[in-house]
Write the structure tokens for this entry.
Amino acid sequence: MTARAVSKYVRISPRKVRQVVDLVRGKGVEEAFHILQFTPKKAARFVERTLRSAVANAASNEASAVREEDLYVQEAFVNGAIAMRRIRPMPRGAAGFIRKRCSHITLVVSDGD
């Protein structure tokens, strides 16, 4: 039985979130929570929130009663979302463009069945 959770338009660069997601991919849910709790990155908070949502989705499924200890992170990936565009003044009257990137975080948890 699988359950998934998606956090959309998270205001952090996908490149930074992928560093954290790579730490928890394939791990058990308990171990993933411990890793995220002690990871000193801003992205760890967003990934942990998404993981809690995926575990809650798995627990609320009426078709099968699954325990949190049996779950593991089957699939985890980060896609880029829209990029807000801002303008910064540059020398000699030019304009420099800044892209403030957003992410979509997707986590799939499974019990192995």
Remarks:
- The chain has three helices and three strands.
- The longest strand covers residues 72-89.
- Residues 42-59 form the longest helix (18 residues).
- The radius of gyration is 17 Å.
